[in-house]
Amino acid sequence: MCVCGVALDVHKLSVVAATLPPSAGRPEIIRVENTSKALRRLIERLGGPAGLAVAYEAGPTGWAIKRLLDGLGVACDVVAPSLVPVRPGDRVKTDRRDAITLARLLRAGELAGIWVPDEAHEAIRDLVRARKRAKEDLREAKQTLQSFLLRHERRFAGRAGWSKAHWRWLGEQAFPFPHQQLVFEEYKQRIREIEARCARLDAALAEAIAGWKLHPLVDALQALRGIALVAAAALVAEIGDLRRFANPKQLMAWLGLVPAEHSSGRRIRRGEITKAGNGYARTMLVEAGWCYRLPAREERRYLERVAGLPEDIRRIGWKAQVRLCRRYRHLSAAGKPLPKVITAIARELAGFVWDIARRVQPAPQV
Fold it and tell me: Model-level pTM?
């Protein structure tokens, strides 16, 4: 049976479907509501799941359509909007034209589907991102309070900010006007509330990971210096199935940690990293890379973290420490700027993440 290409332009309330036969022909445009019932009727109208190939761009509506079509037995791919070819001179954009363009690219084989998480994986990812948002809110709340104090010439003379001594100092501050004091107290209360939210999310994350099928990989990645529970969970949740990368270079490129290049003829020009792919996972690796500026050693907290890991995983962790610490020293001695040195460390650290991932099997589901 010939395969019919169907491209969907998905919106919050509607879906525009463009169908193209395998050979040349005029497209058919169908507009339906974005509901499960309407999409099921659309598949029946197109002749059933057999012989259909569906594609749509990833967007804010999530993976509901993908999961629905998979359940119906329809071959469905979700494509990244940034990887869809666009003609520079095309200045007209409508739902109809977008669907037709996507259908033609699908028929030509120019679209590559992205990896789609299952519902359990998406739940962990939502939890990781909620914690990230809470930490950003906490940082913003602290900066707001510090700015308020600085405007009123209140400076903490101690060493560590937000320590017990700092909080005692904050409790001693008094302002001449009642409404000014109220603002100050509200700022402090906001920080305490967000800290409580972060603690709740940390506890929920630890509990959720314990029952996740990928928790062996989360545990194994903690053999790498600078990657504790939260960073390991974030990497696994954001990257997804690392086994889809055939080699570590593919993972490095997906994370956007490889340099961009614009070479022509005899001229070879490489620039900054591409910053493609998932920004949060890349940030986790860059932050972990700062730990390798210190000499390689296994401190007490690290030993407690890796106590139950297999010996081959622990060997990879130590190998990474020795190599990346030496790499940091050599690049720094060569006069490389510190941000470039840390980025290079993060890129190689991604290779060790890939190496560990290929040795760890998911836990069986009960």
Answer: 0.91
